[in-house]
Amino acid sequence: xxxxxxxxxxxxxxxxxxxAAADDQPSAPAxxxxxxxxxxxxxxxxxxANAGRAAGKGPQLMNTARSDDFIRNRIKNGKEGAMPAFGxxxxxxxxxxxxxYIRALKPQ
Amino acid sequence: MRGxxxxxxxxxxxxxxxxxxxxxxNAQPVDTARIEAGxxxxxxxxxxxxxGYDFSGLDQINAGNVKDxxxxxxxIPGHSTRGLQSMPLVADGVLYYTGSYSRTFALDGxxxxxxxxxxxxxxxxxxxxxxxxxxxxGLALGEGKAFVGSxxxxxxxxxxxxxxxLWETKLIDSAKLTVGFTGAPLYAKGMVIIGAQGGEWxxxxxxxxxxxxxxxxxxxxDTTSGTDEAKKTWxxxxxxxxxxxxxxxxxxxxxxxxxxxxxxxxxxxxxxxxPDYKTTGARPGDNxxxxxxxxxxxxxxxxxxxxxxxxxxxxxFDSAPGEFVSIDRDGKQYMVHPNKSGFIFVYDRADAKxxxxxxxxxxxxxxxxxxxxxxELIGRRDFTAGKQEGVLCPHISGGVSWNSGSYNxxxxxxxxxxxxxxxxxxxxxxxxxxxxxxxxxxxxNFKIANPPSGEIYGHLDARDPITGEKKWEVRFPxxxxxxxxxTAGNLVFVPDSRGTLxxxxxxxxxxxxxxxxxxxxxxxxISYSAGGKQFIAVTAGFxxxxxxxxxxxxxxxxxxxxxxxxxxxxxxxx
Lengths: 108, 574
Known about the structure:
The structure holds two protein chains of two kinds. By secondary structure, chain A is mostly helical. Chain A has a single domain (3-104), classed as Cytochrome c-like domain (Cytochrome Bc1 Complex, Chain D, domain 2), CATH 1.10.760. Chain A is 45% helix and 0% strand. The longest helix of chain A has 15 residues, at 3-17. Chain B has one domain (2-573): Methanol Dehydrogenase, Chain A. Helix content of chain B is 6%, strand content 34%. In chain B, a hairpin with a 3-residue loop joins strand 32 and strand 33 (491-495). Chain B is globular. The chains are: A mainly alpha, B mainly beta. Chains A and B meet through helix 1, helix 2 and helix 3 of A and strand 29 of B.
């Protein structure tokens, strides 16, 4: 893999996420193509073990009883000392895809 | 950005009245010679002295009377998000320590009475976006100042007598790069040395040298690109996003005017290259100087020599967390350094030539072994993308972690915690995310798992530091995550993860005393003297990147253990 490719892919992710704007609220493209599988392997899975299927440093996400609104708020605003705030990184459409990923999680 | 602008204007220090203990009246300044000597009454740098022993020469508390140890005083730092992870320091009867958010305290070592506190206002927006935050694992002392880093990328220089802020230097754009400083700085020869945190982020792991008098940055060594030689070991210029932070303090060797420092793993943590890692995968090549010990000229920051403990590390087994233990024996000058993999490297202190390598853990399979004569990895396990067969050992939290071991020159034994745990692993091809703020790049999904030998456990080993020969071992049902202290009183203290502080006979490993501090330990422990009395000071307070796995893995008492709490507990004899 060439670095140009790697950074290009990163830029794609970034574009899907948010511009480096002064505001913490990213502009919201109507549709997201965020690769949530990869997102868990880069970032989320560090705490949500087995790509969200098991409890680790963070809670198990598969079969969570939390509402979509709760998950959306937690992704955006985080929880001090536990969950980072990703409100600047993801659009609402991205977060919809993350929630859809969580709802679709099945045991391996 | 709003947060950044705010950062430039803030830093509010609350300095309270200077009621100084009598012990400080005729105190000599803390300088390089004094730290090198490591007087028994003090604890002047992270590991006690530059020798890296985590050993106290005091023997008022000893194997014969430790049964009479009791709590003398306590201090609560407040706002202990992710527990209390720091190593206290003591100079001339004054105890200094840090809590989360770089909260820094100076206390009368005999009574615990507050002398001053420094409570900086950090960039909350940046802190809220960080994963490995907001703990602060310690500070440094020198030239009448106390030095502490912050997770939003600053280094503070404080007046050690009053806590007044003398200077602050912004070293990292943490709002953009995510990383800041969680590790303690090192003071030596007019310089403050500090490394950026972690290897999980697509950054270049700088280690900084800062003028202790003014706060001016004197040099910066980028651990993934500090030399042309390094850049050539990263195919496709991947050094630009290589990781490699130096997140724990190294040490200083005045004989060679050298700073020794350990570096973190490369990024992403897990590569999908398979055996052809030199030419394919996420970061083709050896990835210098990640997972290495490096020796820098303290005046210039130029690389003098190094040893890469794990070429092309694809297991997240840093060299950053281990202490540097200087031992002279039979005319040879050694530097002993544990790697996170659970292998202990023994070097010639003149040039980092490998003299021996020995494992402290039983469960490892990332390699079949490491050549004790050359340090070469034998039978390394390089992954391709997808689910891996069996388990990978040790677990990502390490065969050893960042909690320090202790070398006792009286017994000649090195007391060190080893962790027996493994994990399942699925390697995933990833790309680094660098906008709008860099994100973790793990490169895998994983879950903690039992080792092939049976249940997970931890153990305190008493070993010869050069040969690795084991004299005794004490087992714990869960790995202890806090540092170890040994003393001239023939004692070894282990603060365990359940919250119990244990004292053992240093020669035999027999338990002589224990006491509950009420919450798990994952920080430092020291001994010092104030007013002619010996004290043992230990930090308690659980929660963080390794300990947050304990509840789901082990159940009680961790499931019910309070999180985000912290207390400094100080013991003395009745």
